[in-house]
Amino acid sequence: MYTDASEVPGPVALRLERVSKSYRTGNARVPALREVSLSVPAGTFTAVMGPSGSGKSTLLQCAAGLDTPDSGRVLLGSTDMSRLRRRALPAFRRDHVGFVFQSYNLLPQLSVVRNVTLPLLLGGRSVERDWLKYVLEAVGLAGLDERKPQELSGGQQQRAAIARALITRPEAVFADEPTGALDSAAARQVLDLLRHTVTDLGQTVVMVTHDPAAACSADNVLFLADGQLDGSMANASVRDITERVAYLGER
Ligand SMILES: Nc1ncnc2c1ncn2[C@@H]1O[C@H](COP(=O)(O)OP(=O)(O)OP(=O)(O)O)[C@@H](O)[C@H]1O
């Protein structure tokens, strides 16, 4: 794991610098992230693991600009998102960030192709036909593009959501438990697809998961415990990850 961007050999896609975030519940503040610093090299696949409540989703939301840290900086490519005005953030996110949710979040009234191209439409950008065709083929949905989401399996819906995340050629794709609602065969297809976007398209992917079998598709696994980073593993096996997760926060 790189905590300092100067250690990363190539371009850096994402940088968090001493990011802290807490939530107010009643009169108390619950710390969710505590001074987290990390750098994600461009064109790599990173998994984030940790016990329930360790801050994984908060980390992903802050990294993707869906939430704002209390302190610290988040840089996506060369843009310091913490310096963007609140009103500029949604447009920046739409054009530069891909997000994949556990529950797909496709619009039921729109066909696959309209769901996939929606971020371009909303951004006033034209659809590059060749790129759209390539993306739909890459996710295995060629020929199904006029179907509505409810006419697809869960795995197909998630692959449509991944196509939607890729269509803008974002700086990074963030995925929060993307295989959490899928059976193991569909989950494997989604993980292979994410791997393919990294290896063959040079995409940067950051994925939160509870599942060591999913995490081992990643190049690097980051471990969170109690809102802080607690080490990482590169090219780890399912067994290595499972053992590490069992002892999280105990070192
Ligand atoms: N909207 C919120 N209001 C209050 N507390 C919150 C809120 N969101 C998260 N928290 C708290 O912040 C901490 C981190 O939560 P977060 O959802 O990031 O953890 P997580 O590792 O993703 O958990 P899980 O694996 O269960 O999804 C937890 O203590 C959680 O209860």
TrEMBL record:
<protein>
    <submittedName>
        <fullName>ABC transporter ATP-binding protein</fullName>
    </submittedName>
</protein>
<dbReference type="InterPro" id="IPR017871">
    <property type="entry name" value="ABC_transporter-like_CS"/>
</dbReference>
<dbReference type="InterPro" id="IPR003593">
    <property type="entry name" value="AAA+_ATPase"/>
</dbReference>
<feature type="domain" description="ABC transporter">
    <location>
        <begin position="14"/>
        <end position="251"/>
    </location>
</feature>
<dbReference type="Pfam" id="PF00005">
    <property type="entry name" value="ABC_tran"/>
</dbReference>
<dbReference type="InterPro" id="IPR027417">
    <property type="entry name" value="P-loop_NTPase"/>
</dbReference>
<dbReference type="InterPro" id="IPR017911">
    <property type="entry name" value="MacB-like_ATP-bd"/>
</dbReference>
<dbReference type="GO" id="GO:0016887">
    <property type="term" value="F:ATP hydrolysis activity"/>
</dbReference>
<keyword id="KW-0547">Nucleotide-binding</keyword>
<keyword id="KW-0067">ATP-binding</keyword>
<dbReference type="GO" id="GO:0005886">
    <property type="term" value="C:plasma membrane"/>
</dbReference>
<dbReference type="InterPro" id="IPR015854">
    <property type="entry name" value="ABC_transpr_LolD-like"/>
</dbReference>
<dbReference type="GO" id="GO:0022857">
    <property type="term" value="F:transmembrane transporter activity"/>
</dbReference>
<dbReference type="InterPro" id="IPR003439">
    <property type="entry name" value="ABC_transporter-like_ATP-bd"/>
</dbReference>
<dbReference type="GO" id="GO:0005524">
    <property type="term" value="F:ATP binding"/>
</dbReference>
<dbReference type="GO" id="GO:0098796">
    <property type="term" value="C:membrane protein complex"/>
</dbReference>
<keyword id="KW-0813">Transport</keyword>
